[in-house]
Amino acid sequence: MRHVYMDANATTPLLPEVLEAMRPYWIEDFGNASSIHLRGQKARKAVDEARETLAEFFHCRPAEVVFNSGGTEGDNTAVFGLVRPGDHFITTSIEHSAVLQAAQRAAAHGATVAYVAPQPNGLIDPEDIRRALQPNTRLISVMLANNETGVIQPVEEIGKIAAAAGVFFHIDAVQGAGKIPIDVQRIGCHLLSISAHKMHGPKGTGALFVRRGTPLDSLMVGGSHERRRRAGTENVPGIVGLAKAAEIAMHTLEDGTLQRAAALRNRLEASILELPGTGVNGGAAHDGSVPRVFNTTNIWFDQVEGEALVIALDLKGVALSGGSACHSGSTEPSHVLMAMGLDKTRARASLRFSLLKTATEADVDYALQVVPEAVAHLRALSPVAAGTAG
Amino acid sequence: MTVQNETIAVAMSGGVDSSTVAAMLAHAGESVVGLTLQLWDQTRLAGRHGIPDAPKAGRCCSLDDVYDARHVAEHLGIPYYVVNQEDRFERDVVRPFVAEYIAGRTPIPCSLCNNHIKFDQLLQTARSIGASRIATGHYAVNEYDPARKRWILKRPVDSAKDQTYFLFGLTQEQLAHTLFPLGRLTKPEVREMARRHGLRLAEKPDSQEICFIPGGDYKQFLAAYLEEQGEQMPETAGEMVASTGEVLGRHDGIVNFTVGQRKGLGVASSSPLYVLQIDPASHRVTVGADAELATRRLRAHRLNWIAIPELTGPMRVRAKIRHRHQPALATLEPSGADEVIATFDEPQRAITPGQSAVFYDGDEVVGGGWIV
After folding, report:
1. Which fold has domain B8-137+181-219?
2. What is the C-alpha to C-alpha distance for residues A298 and A291, in angstroms, rounded to an integer?
3. Taking a C-beta distance cutoff of 8 angstroms, is the pair A190, A210 a contact?
4. How would DSSP label each residue in A107-161?
């Protein structure tokens, strides 16, 4: 059986070059980057070089890069590091739970939180952010690209609003990193989190851009690592892997790889949309009004239970998901799709296809063979199918 | 799609029985997919009305059970998925369970779950993922009788584990697409088989309680669930009366009583008193002596027939009125649309509305219904 992986927004495979770059730092060059001796210095050099690469990736100074354990830590650090009891915090209702749950905890500790809803097309209207501002607003947190729909949010405009209001601005760029160029100077954000494993790096590693002068409390305390912004012995192999992944990502952002993969996504999407009773959540490729990352399409299928479709496709070798992997097993339909105004049934009947940048024509051909069959099979069994086709 | 007609979906609860079923089928070379139905979030009502924050393991849908089921699937090398059916379970099992108590009856959620979730929904899920049959760890036997052209449900070899009482609602369609591989085995044999297949949960104790009620305190559950739903426990306080009609006192609410209950009646008497009857309309609870509990007649509705297409005239059966009841000889007669009357040869103790009545002919399940 053919195996096609279309769940890149959940995680991506390590690229062989990344593994090779990491390899020396477990056994030979195992030093602690904080040690004085030469072994330690070798590790320090690797971390410093990685920091330079990430600075290039973010368009910031190396000293503004903080290595951490990934997107959740970055998001948590932004919220807990800035928002105090009595502060006002603006975020959106389509954020990842790493932001939403942090917001809930901040609220439990005496902050107030405004959740800005998206428009039906999945875009946040910057004016809604502006309208949510309060005199005591401390932080705005908006994602760069949504993990479920791939919709790219207007962060530059939101950055201007934040700057004008003198409010700190955090971007959860976990799903945008490696898919679209990131320039923290243009965006004007103070904080930006990324995760290595979403861009062919290792799991358990990430980075947080912290603009110089941002009064951010560290989430973890202990040693003086990362200029006291993140205690804990540096994960040297992970940091090296993240840097290698970032370096490769910067290259593929420019060499046509993503355009080629986008064409595959567009073909997949257009062909699936030929099935009756389907539609895209978050604007389709042919409708340029809603910008999306190259690899994602979120499609609803009438009269189909999304969970059953995911299993049926998996048994046919096509791996994808109904939404965020962080919510699998949950009974609640996607909070993102619900916030966009879908009803529960349609939200549950939605599937996220997220292609690897290494996807092939054959992958798409296979998916286009298997998906329509599975959908037709499910619809034939559906108790509501009779007389409502289309 | 190349439909794999041979694929069997095994309902895996993480217990010994269903794990052994998966092992038996996988080792027999069948194409097997393991499914666990996620039915109830055990932490959902935690902290309300004294429900513990950390639920004990060994109940359906606890993370430990999913872990165990997943481990077995990995051990056997079969695909495995957790399918969330919490919404349906709440709608078809939990809400009716709550409503039954409020209406003064004593429900059995396991039969509701079997009817609506375990077989109906599971078979549908199995089909949608390309399997044509399901297998479960129930102790029961099903076989096709060409003479009657019907699927027959029979008692298992291990009578101590007999689960046919909870399976009376199975339709012909469901029976035709279900395997009960344990029906001809005893529990000790199943445990031995689990050991032989290298299942490390071979010694895991059987679960006994209602899966969604941690601790088994149904009153606590009712209070916590209604509170969570933002609903008030309906006022069902009323009179406590003797069978003579004499008012003995008042009670706090009919949800606190079950026919045959002796403890917690709150009235003093020289001889032991038992709940004889609960009237949901007047909220009156009638109590009396043990001997008064015994009656000869029951009415049952919402019927399902298995061994026969329909009851058209009187039929001699053995009727079972609760899980631990020894089936007793009775004559069954139709008494209207979707209703029967069973008249026992000997009076039976505590015939309880809300429980099911299941009718047997020898080892066969003739059918059953819900006691009115």
Report:
1. Rossmann fold (3.40.50)
2. 13
3. yes
4. HHTT-EEEEEPPPTTSPPPHHHHHHH--TTEEEEEEESB-TTT-BBP-HHHHHHH
Task: Collect all residues from B whose CB is shorter than 8 A from any CB in A.
Answer: 1, 3, 33, 38, 41, 79, 81-84, 86-87, 124-125, 127-130
pLDDT value of residue A28: 94
Q: Which of residues 275-334 of A touch B (CB under 8 A)?
A: 305, 307-309, 311-312, 314-316, 329-331
Bridge partners of residue B277, in order along the sequence: B286
Residue count of chain B: 372
Lowest mean pLDDT among A71-80, A295-304, A328-337: A328-337
The CATH class of A16-252 is alpha beta
Please check whether residue A155 is in contact with residue A181, taking contact to mean a CB–CB distance below 8 angstroms. no
In percent, how much of chain A has pLDDT > 70? 95
Q: What is the pLDDT of residues A72-102, one digit of tens each?
A: 999 999 999 999 999 999 999 999 999 999 9
Which of A305, A331, A377 comes nearest B1 by C-beta?
A: A377
User: B128–A312: do the CB atoms touch at under 8 Å?
Assistant: yes
Q: How far apart are CA A211 and CA A208, in angstroms?
A: 10
pLDDT tens per residue across span B252-295: 889 888 899 988 888 877 888 999 999 989 999 999 999 999 99
- Residue A185 touches chain B, beta carbons under 8 Å: no
- Mutation pick from B1, B6, B91 vs chain A, by most beta carbons of A within 10 Å, is B1
ipTM above 0.90, yes or no: no
Contacts of A322 in chain B (CB under 8 A): none
Q: What is the distance in angstroms between the Cα of A53 and the nearest Cα belonging to chain B?
A: 41
CATH number of B295-371: 2.40.30.10
Contact A311 B1 (CB under 8 A): no
pLDDT of residue A326 exceeding 80, the answer is: no
What is the CB-side half-sphere exposure of residue B213 using CA atoms within 13 A?
18
Domain ranges of chain A: 4-12+256-381, 16-252
* pLDDT above 50 (res A388): no
Residue B307 tokens read as 């061994």
Cα A8 to Cα A199: distance, rounded to the nearest angstrom:
9
Query: What is the predicted pLDDT for the residue at A387?
Result: 37
pTM of the complete model: 0.88
pLDDT band at B5 (very low <50, low <70, confident <90, very high): very low
| Contact of B248 with B241, CB cutoff 8 Å | yes
pLDDT at B110: 85
Q: Is A60 a catalytic residue?
A: no
In this structure, the strands spanning B238-242 and B284-288 are parallel
User: Which residue does chain A place closest to B128, by CA atoms?
Assistant: A378
Quick: pLDDT tens for A349-361: 999 999 999 999 9
Instruction: Find the mean pLDDT for residues B76-99.
Output: 92
List B330's β-bridge partners, or say none: B317, B344
**What fold characterizes domain B238-288?**
SH3 type barrels. (2.30.30)
| Tens digits of residue pLDDT in B57-85 | 445 556 778 899 999 999 999 999 999 88
A58-69 exposure pattern, b = at least 16 Cβ within 10 A, e = fewer = bebeeebbbbbb
Which amino acid is residue B127, in one-letter code?
R
A2-26 pLDDT per residue, tens: 999 999 999 999 999 999 999 999 9
Architecture field, domain A4-12+256-381: Alpha-Beta Complex (3.90)
Domain boundaries, chain B: 8-137+181-219, 238-288, 295-371
B83: chain A residues, CB-CB within 8 Å: 307-308, 311
